Automatic annotation (TrEMBL):
Organism expressing this protein natively: Actinomyces ruminicola
Molecular function per GO: peptidyl-tRNA hydrolase activity; tRNA binding
Superkingdom: Bacteria
Residues under site feature: Discriminates between blocked and unblocked aminoacyl-tRNA: N12
Gene this protein is translated from: pth
Full protein name: Peptidyl-tRNA hydrolase
Length: 198
């Protein structure tokens, strides 16, 4: 089967958002693009994409074809471009779409793979579910924790990771990229079992 995987890293476009907690999906995508020795290029679907082979299959063969992508607008407008990409590459969201995003409900730097379910108040996921007409797609959730005190959650996710977290963040990004590679090479269930037993 030649249908690629579609891996979306969620975030807001622009330098002012680049290091926000909300942009951790973009950060993971950059790690994956770098691992593949590729670069993101503009696509007519209001996205930037890299068409790559990702990871290594058991036995040493090159990994499957993967479209690494991020939208070029705001997080809450992700749905339209993701739907257009899935249509362009003939990807069934229920089997070969993986969305990488920040998650307030997980402790900082905890990774979890999930298929389907609610959006947990995440505007990017909400937009994607509405555009696709389904919640039945895979997500890689990356914990950012809850805001301290009475800080508004929206302000919290739109703030940068503090300097003291940067070393741990670098490790988290690599671990998240590993998880993505395992999803596309081993399958979702095997990758989920491996990640959650670590």
């Amino acid at each position: 089967m030649n249908t690629p995987w579609l891996v979306i890293g969620l975030g807001n476009t622009g330098t002012r958002y680049a290091h926000n907690r909300h942009n951790i999906g973009h950060m993971v995508l950059e790690v994956l693009v770098g691992r593949a020795g590729s670069r993101l290029s503009s696509h007519k679907t209001r996205t930037q994409v890299a068409d790559v082979r990702l990871g290594m299959m058991p036995g040493g063969a090159p990994g499957p074809r993967v479209i690494l992508a991020r939208t070029t607008g705001y997080m809450n407008e992700s749905g339209g471009p993701v739907k257009a990409l899935a249509r362009f590459y003939d990807v069934d969201p229920s089997t070969r779409l993986l969305v990488i995003h920040d998650d307030l409900d997980l402790p900082p730097h905890v990774l979890r793979l999930k298929r389907g379910g609610g959006e947990g108040g995440h505007n990017g996921l909400r937009s994607i579910s509405a555009a696709l007409g389904t919640r039945d797609y895979a997500r890689l959730r990356i914990g950012v924790g809850r805001p301290p005190g009475r800080q508004d959650p929206a302000d919290f996710v739109l703030s940068d990771f503090p300097g003291r977290e940067r070393p741990e963040l670098a490790v988290t990004l690599e671990q998240a990229a590993d998880a993505v590679e395992q999803v596309v090479t081993l399958g979702f269930t095997a990758a989920q079992q491996r990640l959650h037993s670590a």
